């Protein structure tokens, strides 16, 4: 290329760059005109960080630069349109992998999703350390998280302005208690807290569309099939270890058995620890905060999960305008299932006096972005082909481990919650969601 052509090419590239900057500026101006610079669209987000301001007037000056959710709605809309325009031949199903490990002497469940990790644990009355939330309350909050995320997508597609969004969820008691039933969260009610200039009819339309398109909502409200395998290796009956000896899962199960027998003597049976936090609480004159609550971060679109005083992040990959700051709701749903199976295996092993040296549960499930497209009409848009494997090392026989696995599946709360069709109802409340969420210190000062 001669110097003249080089000069022309540089000029063309400069014009394209300037045009791109102009379009970007116009897009940013358009977003700001739709609510980013509207002080009425600002919602003060909750923060535990100490205030540096002596007066409220000084603090309020900074509310004008606080973000609203509408900037993220624009990014989500662009991502959804780009995904819609991507040919099916360029897309493929994804198999998600999650693994939960019972951590030796502590017995806590360590849930790993790619580079992310969440701890699940029992309370002190069940040989736990209360280092993380239980499985039932986590399972419900995952549903709330996916409802919040899908509501954001539907608002973006419909062009409805949302200034703030949060979702809480509870399990309501039966009007007539059943004589026999596996104890798991059921009769679910979620509440969408939303601040928006849209009409009640528009917000209700978004809620109905959310129920139609939320993958986790439909996974739980539709009957599923879950396959299983066993990875077994027999260990010596008498375990010896040289110093420095670290007590392992064998010792933990002894304490688990003692806690289980104590609960049965108190009349608590083998019910899952922490499951009471999923229930509707009696309301006093002063409204109490929701124990299971999700907020959508206005900047990143990530969901902040609040389970009692435990806090987690859910996020999406870049093809949904996310930043992968935490596991997706799909991954955490698989993680909650493996955590519950792990815990019930510990309980059943303690009850049956089955010695375990190591225990972990791996699981996989498929999600297909082509679901519903021509040629893929029969592919479900939620997790499917779910299969878990019990990885166990024990001095007991393989037949005894199979019997243990079968006993776990018969009573495991989250396993049976997903197998059965769950009734889920919802409602809209036009309020700032931050007012309804539990302060992290709430459970330290107000013990149940």
Spatial ordering of strands, largest sheet: 3-2-1-10-11-6
Provide the succession of SSEs. HHHEEEHEEHHEHEEEHEEHHEH
How would the global form be characterised?
Answer: globular
Count every beta strand, where a strand is a DSSP E run of 2 or more residues.
12
Distance between the ends: 78 Å
Largest sheet: 6 strands, mixed
What is the share of helical residues?
25-40%
Overall residue-averaged pLDDT value: 82
The number of distinct helices, counting runs of at least 4 residues, comes to: 11
Subunit arrangement of the protein = single chain
**Which structural class do the helices and strands define?**
alpha+beta
**How many whole angstroms does the radius of gyration measure?**
25 Å
Regions with pLDDT < 50 over 5+ consecutive residues? 14-37, 270-277, 279-288, 440-448
């Amino acid at each position: 290329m001669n110097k003249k052509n080089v000069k022309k090419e540089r000029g063309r590239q400069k014009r394209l760059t300037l045009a791109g900057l102009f379009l970007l500026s116009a897009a940013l101006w358009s977003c700001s005109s739709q609510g980013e610079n509207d002080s009425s669209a600002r919602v003060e987000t909750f923060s535990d960080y100490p205030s540096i301001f002596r007066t409220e007037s000084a603090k309020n000056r900074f509310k004008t630069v606080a973000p609203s959710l509408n900037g993220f709605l624009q990014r989500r809309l662009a991502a959804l349109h780009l995904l819609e325009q991507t040919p099916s031949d360029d897309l493929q199903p994804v198999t998600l992998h999650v693994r939960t490990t019972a951590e030796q002497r502590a017995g806590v469940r360590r849930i790993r999703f790619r580079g992310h990790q969440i701890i699940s644990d029992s309370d002190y009355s069940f040989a736990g350390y209360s280092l993380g939330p239980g499985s039932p309350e986590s399972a419900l909050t995952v549903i709330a998280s996916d409802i919040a995320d899908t509501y954001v997508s539907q608002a973006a597609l419909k062009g409805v302005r949302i200034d703030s969004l949060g979702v809480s969820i509870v399990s309501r008691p039966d009007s007539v208690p059943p004589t026999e039933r596996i104890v798991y969260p059921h009769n679910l009610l979620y509440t969408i807290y939303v601040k928006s200039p849209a009409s009640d009819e528009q917000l209700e339309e978004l809620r109905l569309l959310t129920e139609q398109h939320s993958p986790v909502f439909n996974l739980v409200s539709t009957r599923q099939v879950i396959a299983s395998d066993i990875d077994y290796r027999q260990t010596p009956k008498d375990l010896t270890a040289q110093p420095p000896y670290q007590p392992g899962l064998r010792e933990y199960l002894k304490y688990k058995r003692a806690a289980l027998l104590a609960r049965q003597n108190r009349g608590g049976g083998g019910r899952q620890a922490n499951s009471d936090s999923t229930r509707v609480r009696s309301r006093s004159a002063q409204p109490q905060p929701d124990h299971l609550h999700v907020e959508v971060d206005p900047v990143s679109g990530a969901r902040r999960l609040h389970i009692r005083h435990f806090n987690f992040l859910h996020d999406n990959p870049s093809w949904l305008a996310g930043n992968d700051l935490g596991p997706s709701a799909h991954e955490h749903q698989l993680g909650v299932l493996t955590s519950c199976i792990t815990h019930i295996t510990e309980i059943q092993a303690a009850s049956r006096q089955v010695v375990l040296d190591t225990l972990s549960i791996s699981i996989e499930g498929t999600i297909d972005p082509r679901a519903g497209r021509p040629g893929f009409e029969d592919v479900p848009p939620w997790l499917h082909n779910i299969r878990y494997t019990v990885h166990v090392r024990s001095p007991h026989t393989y037949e005894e481990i199979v019997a243990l696995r079968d006993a776990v599946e018969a009573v495991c709360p989250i396993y049976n919650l997903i197998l059965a069709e769950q009734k889920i109802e919802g409602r809209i409340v036009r309020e700032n969601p931050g007012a309804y969420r539990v302060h992290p210190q709430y459970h330290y000062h107000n013990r149940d």
